[in-house]
Design brief:
The chain has 241 residues and is mostly helical. It has one domain. Helices cover 77% and strands 0% of the residues. It is built from six helices and no strands.
């Protein structure tokens, strides 16, 4: 495999997909973030922790403009890093992935990673607006979520190797399902009650899922199309098998 071409495909596809995610997030998720932060601001005013003054709103508006503008860049950076992981996995697994071309292979892999690294952890720890929950538990909540992503991803990898070794392939899928069911029972629940309006939280979760899904779809299509076009594994003897 021509390493330089492989790296270009990986970084470019991840960056494009991350930018798409940032734009989708800005368009459909940010309105619910604004609503959630607005509720939090009202609580601050009512408790006396902040005053409803022009100075407060000027500072708040300046911060939110900076935050919204920066999320596209942040999306591109995060997308590049996740795209690198996707590219490495694809490089190793491309010969065993189903599909008649590399776009279909890429879509298949993206669907697996989307399910194991996002959907399953999201079911256990659904997304909430940033202002929901006790600030003192944010480190714990983030640690639980990241730990569950690692458990799901490594569990899928482990049972993939089981799948390769046994004749009854369905046992590997059943094993992964049973393992994750056990993890759902063992891992603690989110420690904070959700006090925000139910409609706001539900819409935030739906739009967040759409935004994340747009990343996985974008990275699969762009990466697969570039690989199909350039085929870096055909330019030199493969180093990734």
């Amino acid at each position: 495999m021509k390493t330089s071409l492989f790296i270009i495909i990986v970084l470019f596809s991840g960056c494009i997909a991350g930018t798409v995610h940032g734009l989708v997030n800005l368009a459909i998720v940010e309105p619910y973030l604004d609503a959630a932060i607005g509720i939090e601001n009202q609580h601050l005013f009512e408790s006396g922790e902040a005053k409803d003054t022009p100075e407060f709103w000027a500072e708040y508006s300046s911060y939110r403009v900076w935050q919204k503008g920066g999320q596209i860049l942040a999306g591109a950076i995060l997308g590049t890093s996740i795209g690198a992981l996707f590219g490495i996995v694809f490089g190793y697994a491309r010969n065993v992935l189903p599909g008649g071309n590399f776009v279909k292979k890429s879509l298949f892999l993206a669907a697996i990673m989307w399910a194991t690294l996002y959907i399953i952890p999201m079911i256990k720890y659904p997304a909430n607006p940033p202002t929901v929950g006790d600030p003192e538990t944010i480190v714990l909540r983030q640690a639980l979520y990241v730990a569950f992503i690692a458990i799901s991803g490594l569990g899928a990898l482990g049972f993939y190797y089981v799948h390769k070794k046994i004749s009854k392939k369905a046992l590997a899928f059943a094993g992964y399902a049973g393992f994750m069911a056990l993890m759902f029972a063992v891992m603690p629940n989110n420690p904070d009650p959700v006090t925000a309006p139910e409609e706001l939280v539900t819409n935030f979760r739906i739009t967040s899922a759409i935004a994340v899904s747009s990343f996985w779809l974008s990275v699969a299509v762009v990466f697969g199309a570039l690989w199909q076009k350039l085929q870096p594994d055909k330019t030199a003897q493969s180093k990734i098998q």
